Amino acid sequence: MIGHESWYFLGSEATAKSPTWTPVNAPNPHPLPSSVVRDDEPALVAAAKRGEVSAFEELVTRYERKIFRVTRNITGNLQDAEDAMQEAFLKSYEHLTNFKGDSRFYTWLVRIAVNEALMKLRRRHPGEFSIDEELPGSEDLMPRELDDWGPTPEERYQQVQMQEILSDAIDKLEPDFRVVFVLRDVEELSTEETAKLLGLSITATKSRLLRARLKLRQRLNRYFREGGPN
Amino acid sequence: MNCKHVIREISNYIDGELDPALKQELERHLQHCEDCTMIVDQTRKTIKIYSGSVPVDLPSGVKSRLHAALHKKLPPRSV
Q: What domains can be seen in chain A, in order of their start residue?
């Protein structure tokens, strides 16, 4: 049993709980389906820019779990993740007028959260997150553990167990690899955006992503291989 | 192309970023190498499992502290 909290839920984004937002001055306020509410983001941002704290709070409620996952995954530490998340939301409010709407609000917010989380990571582990192109031991890529996973390995675990497995595997990655994997494969940023956020070259970003993916595959192999570990 | 080359190119292959000639060479290797095929499939599955995950609710206390901090520190913005 893995003894720590986990931050993953397996399933479609559409099945996640979506809070609804009702305009403050609506004559007949009633909750809308989440698919409709998603379209109201520009209105929420505009209202928040005008100083409607309730509109900003709705944006926070909408994205707090995703932003916490980002900061938790990058820092690998609960307290730092919470602090980075709070600071990200506060800074985003403070600088909201700088948001011109060229991208989704969430994309803009994620960049702020990533920077806050990276600051925490570097403070807690000075020198552990490197912008060097080549990392020690990076030539050793050949997978050592190779077993058949069967057709649907993820179905062998209950949802909670699966969350623990995914969290455990990602937490054990070195920060250099973990951060790149989180941005590229969990948050699904582009390689270019990931490189830019981290101050890495495209080559270094791709190299770390490759290693992160292979290392995670190897860690998951211990759980997913047929016959083990259960 | 040998197994070492395949492993080095796995990410680019999965992301569809290999040039056509290299992709063809890699796929030829996969046709006769069960180990590399397994690694490609499992790496692809690993990415899919993580990217398909959605965040769970915030841990107890984190949400209330966040909203308390917002209430405390967010003055209404002047227009």
A: 32-124 (1.10.1740.10), 153-224 (1.10.10.10)
On average, the pLDDT of chain A sits at: 79
- Whether residue B70 and residue A51 make contact (CB cut-off 8 A), yes or no, is no
Tell me how close the Cα of A170 comes to any Cα of chain B, in angstroms. 10
**How far apart are the C-alpha atoms of A182 and A188, rounded to whole Å?**
8
- The string over A21-33, giving b where at least 16 C-beta atoms fall within 10 Å of a residue's C-beta and e elsewhere, is beeeeeeeeeeee
Tokens of A65: 């779990």
Task: Please answer whether residues A73 and A190 qualify as being in contact, where contact means their C-beta atoms are separated by less than 8 angstroms.
Answer: no
pLDDT at B78: 53
Q: pLDDT grade, residue A1 (50/70/90)?
A: very low
Residue boundaries of the structural domains of chain B = 3-73
Mean pLDDT value of segment A122-139: 66
Q: What ipTM does this complex have?
A: 0.88
Q: Do A11 and B54 touch (CB under 8 A)?
A: yes
Residue A155: DSSP 8-state? G
Nearest one of A220, A112, A87 to B53, comparing CA atoms: A220
Distance CA A7, CA A182 (A): 12
What pLDDT, on the 0 to 100 scale, is given for residue A230?
A: 52
CATH 1.10.1740 fits B3-73, yes or no: no
pLDDT, tens digit, for every residue of A48-77?
998 888 899 999 999 999 999 999 999 988
- At A219, the amino acid letter reads R
Other Cβ atoms less than 10 A from the Cβ of A106: the count is 16
> Using a CB-CB distance cutoff of 8 angstroms, which residues of chain B are in contact with residue A18?
none
- From the list A172, A189, A178, the residue with the least C-alpha distance to A211 is A178
Segment A107-130 shows an average pLDDT of 86
Q: Is the separation of the CB atoms in A120 and A75 below 8 Å? A: yes
Say how far apart CA A162 and CA B54 lie, in whole Å.
12
